[in-house]
Structures are given as structure tokens and as C-alpha cells.
Design a protein that fits this description.
With about 150 residues, this protein is mainly α. It has 5 helices and no strands. It has one domain.
């Protein structure tokens, strides 16, 4: 399997897995996960909310590694945004409750992923959508470099 196909496969599997966890009824989740996500960090913020933020940040940051051009990369980021709205809407049909607060948390995660992914590509000289191919591993040596003709 080629590297670009592997990148896409891993990203899509991660997105599908997280989608499953977001839209299934709570009683379909593993027992340990049911108890963990409801634990509170503060009055308004639970481990479930932290999972929303970190998952969207990670999925969005990894869009910088996908082998697509600028437009394709922008579509991937738009998919992440729409995913936040869509999964909260679907939750209203599965016995869970979708809420605007979660959509906001999801988008804070998307923004965080954009900042982290952008920072990584700025530091390593790449660009969004270039995948790892946009990062030069070593300077190319030219056979006639430094020779005056």
C-alpha cells in the first residue's frame, strides 16, 4: 500500500471510529467509557467534552499530512466542521442529547488543530495539503554547484 493511500486510510478509519463513538446510544459504548465520559473536571466541563476537543484537534491537525492540494485540504477542514454539527444532530435521534455547547467545543478543537498543524508546517517548511512530501528531508546536492563556467 502506498504512503498516500495509507495516510488517507488511517485518517478515514480514525474519523469513522470517532463518528461511531459520537452517534451510538450510550448503552452501546463500553462500560468503562460510559463512566469516564460523564466524570466532571469542572461544573460545565467533563472528560467527554475534553475528548470532543482533543479528538477534533487531532483529526484536524492530521489533515496537514493528507496528500491533497489547498482546495482539498480546505474541504477536509470543512468536513471536520460539518462533522461537528452533523454528529450533534444525529445524537438527538439515538437517545443522547446533541447540544450547541458541544458544537462549540468541537470547533475550538478544529481551531486548535489548525493552529497546531499550521505551526508544525511553519516550523518544518511545509504547507497544508502537501503531506509529508512538503517537508524537505535534506538539501539536494547539485553536481555542478559552486563551479564557475
Amino acid at each position: 500500500m502506498s504512503v498516500p493511500i495509507l495516510r488517507w486510510a488511517l485518517w478515514l478509519i480514525a474519523l469513522a471510529g470517532y463518528t461511531y463513538l459520537l452517534i451510538v446510544p450510550n448503552n452501546w459504548l463500553p462500560t468503562w467509557l460510559q463512566h469516564t465520559i460523564s466524570k466532571r473536571i469542572t461544573n460545565e466541563f467533563s472528560y467527554g467534552k475534553l475528548a470532543h476537543l482533543s479528538s477534533y484537534a487531532l483529526l484536524t491537525a492530521t489533515t496537514f499530512l493528507l496528500p491533497v492540494g489547498w482546495r482539498g485540504w480546505a474541504v477536509c477542514v470543512a468536513v471536520m466542521s460539518l462533522h461537528g454539527f452533523g454528529t450533534e444532530y444525529v445524537q438527538t435521534f439515538t437517545g443522547r442529547h446533541g447540544c450547541w455547547f458541544d458544537v462549540g467545543i468541537d470547533h475550538i478543537g478544529v481551531g486548535t488543530g489548525l493552529l497546531l498543524g499550521g505551526l508544525g508546517y511553519w516550523l518544518f517548511g511545509g504547507r497544508p495539503g502537501a503531506g509529508l512530501d512538503g517537508i524537505a528531508a535534506a538539501p539536494q546536492v547539485q553536481g555542478d554547484a559552486g563551479r564557475n563556467d
